[in-house]
Amino acid sequence: MVENMPAYKNESLGFEERAKDLVSRMTLEEKVTQMLFNSPAISRLGIPAYNWWNEALHGVARAGVATSFPQAIGLAATFDEDLIYHTADIISTEGRAKYHAYSKKGDTGIYKGLTFWSPNINIFRDPRWGRGHETYGEDPYLTGRLGVAFVKGIQGNDKKYLKAAACAKHFAVHSGPESERHSFNAEVSQKDLRETYLPAFKELAKEANVEGFMGAYNRTNGEPCCGSKTLLRDILRGEWGFKGYITSDCWAIKDFHEGHGVTNTAPESVALAVNNGCDLNCGNMYANLLIAHKEGMVDEKTIDESVIRLFTIRMKLGMFDKPEEVPYASIPYSMNDCREHREFALEVSKRAMVLLKNKDNLLPLDKNKIKTIAVIGPNADSRDALIGNYYGTASNYVTVLEGIRQLVNDNTRVLYSQGCHLYKDKVEGLAERGDRLAEAVNAAEMSDVVVMCLGLDATIEGEEGDAGNEYGSGDKDHLNLPGLQQELLEAVTKTGKPVILALLAGSAMAVKWADENVPAIIEAWYPGAEGGKAIASLIFGEYSPSGKLPVTFYKTTEELPDFHDYSMKNRTYRYMKKEPLYPFGYGLSYTSFDYSDLKLSKDKINAGENINLSVKVKNTGKYESQETVQLYLQDVKASVEVPVWQLGGIRKVNLTPGEESKVDFTLTARQMALIDNDGKCILEPGTFNVYVGGSQPDEKSRRLTGKAVLKAEFEVLGKSVELEY
Fold it and tell me: What is the pTM of this model?
């Protein structure tokens, strides 16, 4: 009987060999149907229906109840690779549990599969971009390290099968404007392309072995990303040797002729995409592939290659094998949204909090000394402000107001006022402007201390079509607090009561007035379903904050370059000239850390060698806490413009009061290399500075933290050499 078994059913053969055999048995029409994201069943071959579109940005999304983690930008603020890996591992566990439970009920619809279109590793180059909160921030190194950890957690560590398939998006050079994404051409230099926009994608392809890539909506240097020969064929499959599948962004193929005007017809558009390696169409344009083939624009062999890649992924996921042979197929549905997962998500929420200001150690509050506390603001009792976008349904939500109520003493009175609408000038439709301001001021006057919950939510910053606002399709026109929030903040502060400002937002905000007038400021991001607990717990000192900013906070909107300009000049901490409000990598703690004994393995190395270094970190305060040890590298005499300095290492250490730990780093030759103006990777001889501490080595971070980072230098000898990118 085994002798007559078709090769694609033979579990002892390799997945690609099996996929080739399966595809060889299909008609051309059947092959084309499998290149659509909602692939129908082919019953004669035993192929079940499958929908490729699923989301898992910070929890399994859009498929009912699941554990809800902080939004991706909050995950980035942890600077913690292990934490991100564990988070993604939980997400894929729940994804597996859902997939098998739903499949048994015959539900193979959208958001029910094992191909997760996450993570979003675009560089958050401009704080006005509405989708920036889906990313890991503005730095290529941090984005790459956290992206790799997330992919490994999603895909599992079995030697044969995938737990789930992650997808790196949006490839490449994509970060707004949202309103123009279907026609926009992002013009980028070869230097910026390879120095800033591509490194994280390369790491996910080569180090994490991510199974999927999604193209961006826009054009990059004239080519639509989902049909770009340069990006898809030359770089991704050619240079990097990527073997997985490529999907279009949703309905992006029709933009080729409708928005970008690079083709004239739908068959021309699908031919451009498929011929450059876009295997899957999120949308329905690939229904035109039969016409494109008939007119000689696409060979059947090219179609075969795409369909083979798609079925190789499905086979790696165990969809054609006996469940008992697939280790992840036995994950029970009871693992979804289990208590252990929710508790871990709360811990992640705590690690994501960034303490921006704490004048005279106002925080933490002693709850035994507070008789009345006012919780004020449009985000104080908002579930929307907890979750960000691309979210699942949580089984339990805890807003900031609820978190504080749960934590204060029984005899402490908690007053609440919305204060103002998130972005409109009144709460009630028929009311006059500022209809909640008086109530908020009254509440503040009656209280010992005020917690102000301001910021944004994903209804006004996000993706075109998801976010509707007075801005631009989810992008922001400015970085100020919207609506009457600034007016509310100033009115409450004038009462003279101590104010703690909790910002719930997915992006940097220009809160210069607050920095000058409010004693304590917390950046809470979109902290997850029970994020209110994490914020309350921070305020009352149940843990010490340890988050760091994965983005720069600017002082004003006016200092930003034009939103359409994709040059990195004057953008992010790596290239900005002006002093920030709060720097990338900055965040305060309730304790203090001292650094000492920075040692390099050598002070002179030959070009191509690595260098090792170590540093000692000691908790010199009164709280147990985590510290984010940051290494920055500076090329002192480069032949082209290079970053002022750039992140080159992160380590998390947890130290009790008085405890000291030795932390080790390795700097590679590739990290010492620069990208020249032609996009080549060149290691030049010269002097390099290494900075290690709890922040960047900039003057503003030194003033804010009261501590200077340690510095050492080394020299690279020899001649300039070109390295593999």
Answer: 0.98
